[in-house]
Design goal:
single chain; about 375 residues; alpha+beta; five-stranded antiparallel sheet; three-stranded antiparallel sheet; 14 helices; 8 strands; about 45% helix; elongated
Length: about 375
């Protein structure tokens, strides 16, 4: 993929990845998405607003034309809800009416070519995100006439969301992906909802070995391989029933060991397992690393060498300097995820935007009176 890929193609790619993630991890949120809009429906919206709908926004709406939300929450990055087209038209009319009442004194509260696409919640449209059809930038609007540029483009916003879901330890800003009663909620949320919210850490499902002698042996803990070798050498390979029983027994043991290693890594991400003195994960945890890392245990030096930009390396050095040993496993995995993402132009753009302080969530939104 090249950096000059059309904006609508970038949106389609990123949203397809988001849909796949939602379907796998948070089925209630996936089910809350509305079907895509027809060309006729988008043409009616363009006629009602008096503004052509940009290609990248059409690409999004072709796949999902809004959401109904789950438990009053939207699923979009930042806690926003994807607006249905009727709400888009209503908000656009309302904002233009407010602009007319405000008069022509600068700054403008709303421009005709601003097209809203996200709101505070499924039933709350007093604030949200809009796309500037002229510049392609994404702006935020608020109840009290707050206005501000949030993202360089709609593709950048959706790509950052996709990256945050695919590699959740790289998620920037105060809002992290998590689950609340099975739905995607960016949090942690406040109050009682925060107690029930579970942060998503992206653990892979257990990796079961193939049912072959070599694969089983490789998956066993090191201190059990001698026993495996001894019993394998004594096995009568001419007896199919004995071979099958041997494979069944040791494959079950390998699966059990690998699932335990997955649990250990999940604990490591919460800071409960020490890394070897500041350098690598202990070798016995190598087999449980996520798929992209299993070819070798990452070290700080390897990660720093893989980061492509000095500004990103500087951020890594700062995190490493302030980390304490119980947090080393999470630090290693987080920054190796970042290095892996930077090998892809989409991930590279998102990571550099985060490190430079652009495009990510900028604190919490202004509190609103009830």
């Amino acid at each position: 993929m090249t950096t000059d890929e059309p904006a609508d193609a970038r949106v389609t790619r990123a949203w397809a990845q988001i849909l796949e993630w939602l379907a796998e991890y948070t089925p209630p949120s996936y089910a809350a998405l509305r079907p895509g809009a027809s060309e006729e429906e988008m043409a009616e919206l363009a006629a009602a607003s008096g503004t052509d709908v940009p290609a990248e926004l059409r690409a999004l709406w072709r796949l999902s034309a809004g959401e109904d939300g789950v438990n009053g929450s939207g699923l979009m990055l930042g806690g926003w809800a994807l607006m249905p087209l009727d709400a888009v038209a209503e908000v656009h009319r309302r904002q233009l009416r407010i602009q007319e009442e405000h008069g022509e004194d600068p700054p403008a509260l709303w421009e005709p070519w601003w097209i809203p696409f996200c709101s505070s919640g499924p039933d709350d449209t007093v604030s949200g995100l809009c796309l500037d059809a002229r510049t392609g930038e994404v702006h935020r609007w608020g109840r009290y006439a707050e206005r501000g540029r949030e993202y360089a483009s709609l593709p950048a916003y959706l790509e950052l969301m996709a990256v945050s879901l695919e590699a959740p330890l790289t998620a920037a800003g105060p809002e992290k992906p998590g689950m609340l009663r099975g739905a995607l909620v960016w949090g942690p949320p406040d109050g009682e909802r925060g107690d029930a919210w579970v942060r998503h850490l992206g653990q892979a499902p257990p990796r079961h070995p193939a049912k072959t002698l070599g694969a089983i042996r490789e998956a066993l803990p090191h201190d059990e391989r001698d026993a495996f070798d001894e019993r394998r050498d004594a096995l009568d390979l001419a007896g199919p029933e004995a071979v099958a029983a041997f494979l069944d027994h040791w494959w079950g043991r390998a699966v059990e060991a690998q699932e335990q290693l997955e649990d250990d890594i999940a604990s490591a991400l919460r800071g409960n397992i020490m890394a070897q003195p500041g350098r690598e994960l202990a070798p016995e945890y190598e087999a449980a690393l996520p798929p992209a890392l299993r070819h070798r245990p990452p070290s700080f030096d390897e990660i720093r060498a893989a980061l492509r930009h000095e500004s990103v390396r500087g951020r890594f050095d700062q995190d490493r300097l302030h980390a304490i040993p119980p947090h080393f496993p999470a630090l290693l995995l987080r920054w190796w995820d970042i290095a892996r993402l930077m090998a892809d132009p989409r991930g590279d753009r998102a990571v550099r935007a985060v490190v430079a302080g652009r495009g990510g969530a900028r604190g919490t939104r202004r509190s609103q009176p009830s």
